[in-house]
Amino acid sequence: MRVAPPPDKDLISVTSRQFTLLCLLPLAIFTLAFLALPLVRLFLGSGAGETGWGIYLTILRTPRYLSTLAQTVGVSLAVTVAALAISTTAALFLVRNRFPGRDTLLAVLTLPLAFPGVVVGFMIILLGGRQGLVNQLLPGHVVFAYSIFGLFLGYLYFSIPRVLLTVMAAAEKIDPALEEAARSLGAPPHRIVIDVLLPALGPAMIAAGAIAFATAMGAFGTAFTLATDIDVLPMVIYTEFTLSANFAMASALSILLGLVTWGILLIGRSLSGGTVAAGG
Amino acid sequence: MLKSPAKLLQLLVTLLACAFLFVPTVQSVLAGVTANYFRGLSSGLTLKWIGEVWTLYSASIFLSIWIALACLVVTLIIGVPAAYALARNPGRLSRVLEEFISLPLAVPGLALALALLQLYGGYTEFRTSWAFILVGHVLYTLPFMLRAVLAVLAAIDLKTLEEGAASLGAGPARRFVDVVVPNALPGILAGALTVVTLSIGEFNLTWMLQTPFTKTLPVGLADSYASMRLEIASAYTLVFFVMIVPLLVAMQWATARAQRILQ
User: Fold this and answer.
1) Beta partners for residue A277, in sequence order
2) How many structural domains compose chain A?
3) Structure confidence by residue, pLDDT tens digits, A6-23
4) Which positions, given as ranges, span the membrane (chain B) (predicted)?
5) How many CB atoms lie within 10 A of CB B1?
6) pTM for this entry
7) Is A21 in Cβ contact with B167 (below 8 Å)?
8) B221 neighbourhood in chain A, CB within 8 Å
9) Looking at the domain assignment, is residue A110 inside a domain?
């Protein structure tokens, strides 16, 4: 019986290598043309205004931009804390208990994952707008949709599902024996939460918190629907670009915002390991 | 089940969160089919508003579907081969490249849109065509496709499979089509459903990139929230829900399936 000669290893590896490069080519062209070059252009554009690169100093010296920055960070932090508290509680409850209707609750809690920011804004208008539910049910004129509280609720609306999914994935991996051991040793419930559950969920909570914070910082759709009178960073960028035609300032603020959200996510990931990000 | 007050509190928080997310959704669905929302359901149910949405906005709905499908084709062509190349060469350079491509997940869409506008805004023909919006959508959804496929390819023993095919005389292109793609299918499916779902709902980039001739569904939604009566805005939102919710369910199913296969 004749044995076929083994294929020439070098020949295969050379053609494989060329094929691999060919596989990367469409990605390389697209990324260069529509990501790398535009970002470079954005950065150069930020320095092309009257003040040149001093524009970044101007941001730090202009009270309006500073208060915008503070307000954006403030509302994003509040949303992060609230979403973590609510979603972690719900995640633990849903992981620990099996009951009829559990899957329905889970489906309801993850439904908004696919809602764009504008739709989330509309949901808040339906709750707290002039024709909203609260205004109809409560006596007096209760309209909160267009206030900073309405914005907070809107950001909370799209943050809850994201945080929930990340924390639930981690909660499912906790060994119930740990908790039982703590309980059998006489630990009261709050000690179990502090000493067993939170350390085990810590990395997932950091990752989820980072995602919630970064998403809230950059959320444009919801702010566009609700924050006509509120200065948050994405809205200020939008008005600088469209109404004031101050392209350099819009670019500089965009660069600043992008660096903040990217940095937060990077820190969150390095503290926690992997991430789950979805939607915008 | 509810033995302790702590459990009761947990249940209460979970139910309140559900109510917060679900009540406005139900309101919007009801408002979309109620004759007069201000007078309530007693004014009767109607499909009149859905009809008005159709006459006013059907073009935006079809444009969104068209762009989502085009976006799917482009992300498949770019993403699947690239995921293969990255999976074959797992190294520092691949990680840096993957990180850079994933930038649109971390940088707000508004910033990316401004970047695209400043570089390409002057090319009027491109700027006013739907292809300009397509570019934005591909930019935003490509990382999802790439990661979904990469996750599957990284979990299977690609090298052994390929060596087997190579020893039978299959060239690299043949191996890609006959070995790599079939094995990556669960990831491709999950990625594809994610891409379509995200593209149909994309607003942050699209609002900046759109022109009066290239209005997508979410852009139309924003327009109706600002200028139409509540019933029409709600009916339009209802149409959007009918499109996006089955996609979301399918996407979650496909993603869970791909993850099960990996384990």
Assistant:
1) none
2) 1
3) 555 545 555 778 888 899
4) 55-87, 99-120, 132-156, 176-200, 233-254
5) 9
6) 0.90
7) no
8) 116, 118-119, 122
9) yes
Pick from B13, B109, B51, B19: nearest CA to B231: B51
**Which tokens go with B117?**
């506008």
A188 within a domain of the structure (yes/no): yes
Interface test with B, best of A87, A242, A254, A269 (most B CBs within 10 A): A254
Is B223 an 8 Å CB contact of chain A? no
Token digits of residue B134: 């397509």
Enter the tokens of residue A78: 């509040």
CATH code of the domain in which A212 resides? 1.10.3720.10
Q: Domain limits at A222?
A: 54-272
- For residue A117, give the chain B residue with the closest CA: B203
CA dist., res. A255 & res. A232, Å (int): 15
Residues of A in contact with B139 (CB under 8 A): 34-35
> By the 8 A CB rule, do B25 and A123 touch?
yes
Tokens of A261: 């959200």
Indicate if ipTM > 0.95.
no
For residue B35, the number of C-alpha atoms closer than 13 Å in the C-beta half-sphere is 7
Domains of chain B listed by start with CATH number: 57-262 (1.10.3720.10)
Q: Is A262 on the interface with B (CB under 8 A)?
A: yes
> A109 CB near a chain B CB, below 8 Å?
yes
